[in-house]
């Protein structure tokens, strides 16, 4: 019996190929159209669906060659079968309600088939306990053809309809299939995935925000930890994400590695924030990127690229813990006042982009910022616009630029900079002029104080610091000081004369200098 079954399957495949050839000949005018149509019909009849027992085991049957909607009640199958394999089907619409008449049927295997839809028309529960998909698919992204041998990537969609229709399901096995999606069952089942791949993008990724596009397989990781799921090492991601440089993607990366990253990033993700995985970057000592399947699996090291998004979540301070491999941090529209955590926490040292616009930041510790710049090996972007900064540590920034060529892209527009303070203004204008490429929209950096000399919102680069910050002219010249000294001496002489005159008239007493002089000594003889 097995030999007969194998021969029938082989003959059916041969006849299917003959059908395609005959149709092609018809299109090319090689044979008359009526004759070609008759031959195709005969070939399709010869390749009609069959159901036969497997290996002489009357409890296990295989039905092959079906297409379209399948009603297994039409086939003479024993009511006590325990396992049913559906093979080599195309565009199958399988009504699971037709399986309820087989009371002992617990195993359903779909092999090398295209299952367009699994549906239930009926109220009786389907007692399928083990469901297996082997080299099967539900749709083709490029084209769908009844007897197509190659339709591009054959995608299998294990959606909620499939899971919820089999309430008694205990085991789900997926072997060498390319999953476009897989829904988490409400009740724990035994999940086994071997070979093939899983699309790491949502099917409708084009309309989703970027931070929500990548699929979160955290639930599979939790199931693996609790021994409810088995995931082989050869199950790979397939997608192509090219949003940033350097090149990164999840193509041909083991799902296990992605799940491990998912668990770690969710564990260390700050409260109220999102921490999506954006992809990966290749790390190689000689910086020679080997793009390809092997480059991302064996020959090169790789590290995830994680974005922490804490936008408008009422943060008042910087998080002390963020996921490892964070490359972008966004905390716009919050109430953060102090950002020194960035400069003392090593977790922020390798971040490429830090967005802190629309906060309440008032000052930056210059010494900590200076050390932070020296410890970095790559440039980065820092957005501090729409805050409450009156000054920047420009002196420490100039020192860092001088000793190490790190030029961060900084945006500081719409801050109330104090242009009255000349020791800050002179250095601030200098750094905006010398390193204007490092300050985004430097022409829009403006003062805040309003006065005659410092009008509100005046551009810092347009100020004449030589005039505004020139030293004040002295009130007195040197000749004035001499005249004042001479006048003081004359005044003292006049006061002394008046005093001596008063003493002589009142007491007939001569001044002391007169009594001791030659005249006074002569009068004594």
UniProtKB/TrEMBL annotation:
Q: Does the keyword Membrane apply?
A: yes
| Cited Gene3D superfamilies | Ribonuclease Inhibitor (3.80.10.10)
UniProt keyword annotations, A-Z: Glycoprotein, Membrane, Signal, Transmembrane, Transmembrane helix
What subcellular compartments does it reside in? Membrane
> Entry's InterPro entries?
AMIGO, LRR_dom_sf
What cellular component terms from Gene Ontology apply here?
Answer: membrane
Instruction: Say if the entry is tagged with keyword Chaperone.
Output: no
Please give the superkingdom of this protein's source: Eukaryota
Which positions make up the signal peptide?
1-29
Q: What is its main location?
A: membrane
Report TM segments: 481-502
Membrane-related topology note: Single-pass type I membrane protein
Q: Mind telling me which PANTHER family this protein's record contains?
A: AMPHOTERIN-INDUCED PROTEIN, SURFACE ANTIGEN BSPA-LIKE
Tell me what this protein is called. Answer: Uncharacterized protein
Q: Which organism is it from?
A: Meganyctiphanes norvegica
């Amino acid at each position: 019996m097995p030999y007969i079954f194998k021969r029938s399957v082989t003959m059916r495949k041969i006849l299917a190929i003959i059908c395609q050839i005959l149709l092609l000949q018809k299109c090319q005018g090689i044979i008359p159209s009526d004759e070609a149509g008759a031959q195709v019909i005969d070939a399709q009849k010869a390749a009609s669906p069959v159901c036969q027992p497997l290996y002489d085991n009357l409890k296990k049957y295989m039905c092959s060659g079906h297409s379209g909607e399948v009603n297994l009640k039409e086939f003479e199958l024993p009511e006590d079968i325990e396992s049913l394999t559906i093979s080599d089907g195309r565009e199958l619409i399988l009504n699971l309600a037709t399986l309820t008449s087989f009371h002992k049927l617990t195993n359903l295997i779909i092999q090398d088939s295209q299952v367009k839809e699994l549906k239930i028309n009926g109220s009786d529960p389907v007692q399928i306990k083990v469901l297996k998909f082997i080299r099967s698919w539900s749709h083709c992204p490029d084209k769908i053809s009844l007897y197509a041998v190659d339709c591009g990537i054959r995608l299998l969609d294990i959606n909620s309809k499939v899971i919820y229709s089999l309430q008694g399901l205990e085991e789900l096995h997926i072997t060498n299939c390319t999953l476009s999606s897989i829904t988490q069952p409400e009740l724990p089942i035994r999940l086994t995935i071997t070979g093939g791949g899983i699309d790491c993008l949502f099917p409708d990724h084009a309309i989703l925000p970027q931070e929500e596009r990548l699929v979160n397989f955290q639930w599979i990781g939790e199931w693996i930890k609790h021994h409810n799921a088995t995931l082989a090492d050869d199950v790979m991601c397939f997608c192509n994400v090219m949003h940033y440089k350097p090149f990164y993607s999840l193509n041909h990366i083991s799902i296990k590695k992605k799940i491990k990253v998912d668990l770690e990033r969710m564990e260390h993700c700050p409260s109220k924030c999102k921490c999506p995985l954006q992809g990966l970057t290749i790390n190689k000592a000689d910086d020679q990127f080997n793009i390809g399947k092997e480059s991302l699996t064996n020959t090169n090291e790789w590290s995830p690229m994680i974005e922490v998004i804490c936008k408008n979540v009422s943060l008042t301070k910087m998080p002390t813990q963020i996921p490892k491999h964070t490359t972008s941090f966004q905390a716009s529209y919050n109430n953060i006042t102090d950002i020194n955590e960035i400069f003392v926490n090593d977790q922020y040292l390798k971040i490429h982009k830090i967005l802190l616009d629309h906060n309440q930041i008032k000052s930056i510790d210059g010494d900590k910022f200076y050390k932070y710049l020296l410890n970095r090996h790559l440039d980065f972007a820092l957005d501090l616009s729409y805050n409450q900064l009156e000054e920047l540590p420009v002196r420490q920034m100039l020192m860092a630029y001088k000793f190490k060529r790190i030029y961060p892209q900084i945006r500081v527009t719409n801050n109330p900079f104090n242009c009255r303070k000349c020791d800050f203004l002179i250095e601030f204008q200098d750094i905006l002029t010398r390193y204007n490429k490092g300050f985004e929209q430097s022409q829009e950096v403006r003062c805040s104080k309003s006065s005659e000399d410092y009008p509100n919102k005046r551009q810092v680069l347009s100020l004449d610091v030589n005039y505004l910050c020139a030293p004040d002219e002295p009130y007195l010249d040197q000749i004035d000081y001499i005249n004042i000294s001479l006048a003081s001496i004359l005044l003292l002489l006049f006061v002394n004369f008046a005093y001596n005159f008063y003493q002589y008239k009142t007491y007939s007493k001569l001044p002391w200098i007169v009594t001791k002089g030659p005249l006074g000594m002569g009068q004594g003889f």
